[in-house]
Write a structure and sequence with these properties.
The protein is of the alpha/beta class and 275 residues long. The protein is built from 8 helices and 13 strands.
Length: 275
């Protein structure tokens, strides 16, 4: 079943480390043993898309995680529990509820007296449900616009800092083109955010909820490290902690913009713009 999905969609994975900016992403002796397939980390997939295909396909075996970034647990919306088939699929992937407490617990999970590295590896789409609506045909957007809703999304950076885990930025080219949606009244978007569930009219191949055949291209950027590794963050003042969170947030946003602009030509998207 998974092979059939991957044969229908297909994807490639690129590692773009670029040039170090000497700030948060810099490599130190403490980071040289980081293994993308086994070390604790938060994998942040951008953009969400109408359905988070980028995150979903990254959890599939064989040509998915086993040959790329290793096993991790996907963070999924609470509303997933309302859909039996999807709920079963998510349970098979050992999905984690998107509540802050559940994610924090997964990052701190231990077995006996030893921290389990596998359990401290999560995949998340930080833009969430709200990002689904930030694209064409929404007024003000052009078909060549891609959107990443990151400006006020600090939650994962707070968790990364508290649990001393790095964030791995991943841009998924093509994730927004697997479904299209009809622009509905604004109040439905507002209601979707409030209920944390998608209320949109989507369609795919032949007007059915079958994804368009769109090859995905994952680009993995430079790892964003907490600047205060091995320091008890509870000893920081609120202002100091917020400063460190903002520093990680800015580094992540800059890295997503960099890997998008640098690699969009490889995907044939020279005219695309990330907003």
């Amino acid at each position: 079943l998974w092979d059939a999905w991957l044969n229908y969609i297909g994807f490639t994975v690129l590692h773009d480390k670029g040039e170090d900016n000497g700030l948060v992403t810099q490599s130190t002796s403490n980071h040289q043993d980081f293994d993308i397939q086994t070390s604790p980390a938060i994998f942040a997939f951008v953009p969400h898309g109408i359905f988070p295909f980028g995150l979903a396909f990254s959890c599939l075996p064989e040509r998915g995680y086993r040959q790329t970034w290793g096993v991790f647990k996907p963070v999924v919306a609470t509303a997933i529990k309302l859909f039996p088939l999807v709920r079963t699929f998510v349970a098979w992937m050992t999905g984690v509820d998107a509540s802050r407490s559940a994610v924090s617990s997964a990052l701190a999970q231990q077995t006996g007296n030893m921290t389990t590295a596998h359990s401290r590896r999560l995949g998340i789409s930080p833009g969430g449900i709200a990002e689904m609506f930030e694209s064409f045909p929404k007024p003000g957007f052009h078909p060549n616009d891609e959107a990443a809703l990151l400006k006020d999304r600090n939650g994962i950076f707070k968790l990364a800092l508290r649990h001393n885990v790095p964030i791995v930025p991943v841009y998924t080219f093509g994730a927004t083109k697997m479904f299209r949606r009809v622009q509905l009244p604004q109040f439905l978007e507002t209601l979707s955010r409030a209920l944390k569930i998608s209320l949109c009219l989507l369609f795919g191949k032949l007007g059915l909820p079958i994804p368009f055949r769109q090859r995905l291209m994952y680009v993995i950027g430079k790892t964003i490290w907490p600047t205060l590794a091995n320091i008890d963050t509870s000893s920081l003042s609120g202002e100091e902690f917020d400063h460190q969170v903002q520093e990680m947030h800015d580094a992540f946003c800059n890295e997503i913009g960099r890997i998008f602009d640098r690699n969009k030509g490889h995907y044939g998207w020279e005219n695309k713009t990330l907003r």
